[in-house]
Amino acid sequence: MASTDELKDLSPDAHPHVAMDAAIQTSLGAPSSTGSTPPSSTPSTSHGINPPRNSVKWTGDEKDAFNELCRKLLVGMTTSQINRALQTVTDRMKSMGYHKTLQQCRQQWYGSGRFLPEFHGGPAGPRVMSPPSNDDASPVASRINTPNAALQVEKTSPTPAAAPTPAAAPNNGATTISRVAAADSQHVQQRVNAEALAPGHNKTWSSYEREKLSELVNAYRSEELNNGTVQKLGNQALMEIISGQLKDRHGIDRTPAGCSKIWRKLAQEAMGSSAPAIPPMLSPLSKDTKAKLGDAALLTNTKTNAQNKKALQARKSATGKSYQIIRWSPEHKQLLIEEAKKTLYPSEETINRLADELQATVKRIKEFFSNARSGNYSFTKNVELGDGADDAEYADMPSNSPGTKGSRKSLKRGRTDDSINLDTDDDDYPLVLRPPKKPRTDAARTMRNAPTSATGDDTPAGKIKMILPPRDPALPLIPPSQPRNPLGEAPSLPRKSPTKKVRQSTGSFTSIDSQSLDRVERWKADTLLMIKDCDETIASRKNIKAQTLAEISTDDAAAATLQTKITALQQQLLALTNSINAKKSTVGDLDAQINKAELRKKHHQLALEYED
DNA sequence: ACATACCCGACACCTTGACA
DNA sequence: TGTCAAGGTGTCGGGTATGT
């Protein structure tokens, strides 16, 4: 993770125009500016008049510098922290003479930077840029004026030459698909053969390349359709995988963007013919395309606000009510509360299960948890729910800042940016004012509503910034090329698309290419191995449990014997104590008799003396 | 007063088409 | 072909209207 010193270094006075998050500036000790900082000299990034295009290919130096900055600054950051820090990266790039906009840097990050091995806990990401330069004398390294060169070297990892085999590194963050591909030595010869066919960039795609691209995409999309366990990928994520696969399997060196473009082209060609020879596009379709296809069901069902209001009005005029509130039955409510106590962020699976169990819509289930997170319910109001408490991922979250008072509204509207503060320590938590009733991991899961510095956004000042806990640098960022696997869960195919976009299938695939079958088979084999491993663990633990139970039984008998002895001894002790007490009493009586006799003796002696 | 449903904006991520 | 800007989409939190 980037230290504060590093961040300070990245907020040079030489760039006071940079509209960094005010709180970050405060945290970094940058010269304070009055109010919100103007959005700099890059006015042409987002809306409005089209800016002059600056479509200049990233040079190797630029990419190296960008990657180096990413390594130096972004490792260990959460996604949202990264999104903010990208502004810093942009500024640093400018200070180094590389004039790239924030969005350019952002796209560079999402396009390739995030797939650097540093963000995958090791080598062999789905796609990797040029290896990090450890040579401080290199032009790029020298331009990146790091105050902590040792850290830079430490954070850079070896060149991700070859992906490890599944057996060697089953959970190292590499995707199954990549690991399998790299492990398959038979493809080496194919690569050699293919190199002659597809030597590199700036060359028209050969039919061979198109064919292989089509095979891979079709294979994966078919799996998505036919295998429920396969996570669905967005085009971009898929093309990252496909690009790597083309290289690993066939030696075809094509960028994800190139793959995407060609694939789209193939799909468009297919759609244009009555009997598409080329497989249909299964990737998400644009609205226009859907409209052209005339499939209304494929069009987004998102209503406009006007439509919503109209529907609301219609309902109200018809029924007298805007909507009907359906109350949860006590049993259902209890079940929901139990789930909410486990986590306020149930998985999609859990939500679906609850919807099934409670015969409710997914929407209502989600609303319940949303409201629960907002503290709308009595059971969440005064209780620090154990949300995520069982989740080791967030177990080390620090508690909220103490002493925060006031409603959410007042916090949201009353706070100023300087209450957002990047911690200066390793535990990069912000000092965030939050309502005391708010579950802490609410903040851990989201980073919403915060000013994002110089992006020109119109976030109102004072919005609460939620910060995620520091990401384990060993874990992949986006997409997780391998699921975190603390329990040895089955390896999964690459990450699904985060959205639920409708995928269109206008035809059918009759076959999956053999290599893809290999991949699936290997994935199944991996999973079976995991299951076998679990079985062994279960058997082992059962054996130990039986032994322990036997020991308990033996110990129980010994304990019972001892208890009997103890009881007898206690009875003996009691008898002895009674005997002692009785004898002590006798002794007391004897003392009294002795004293009495001594008194009588003295009396008689005095009488004798008197008579004399 | 509390529960529920809905609205809205921010955000991350993605797609698309234009351009060099 | 790679890069860019623009815009779309889904999710979420915060806020609030409405019902019970």
TrEMBL record:
Biased composition of type Polar residues is found at 504-513
Composition skew (Basic and acidic residues), residue ranges: 1-18
The molecular function terms of the Gene Ontology recorded here are:
DNA binding
Residue ranges annotated as coiled coil are none
* Residue stretches of biased makeup (Pro residues): 470-483
Q: Where is the composition biased (Low complexity)?
A: 31-46, 156-173
Region of interest: Disordered: 1-59, 117-173, 390-513
Q: Which domain of life is it from?
A: Eukaryota
What's the protein here called? Answer: Myb-like domain-containing protein
| Organism annotation | Phialocephala subalpina
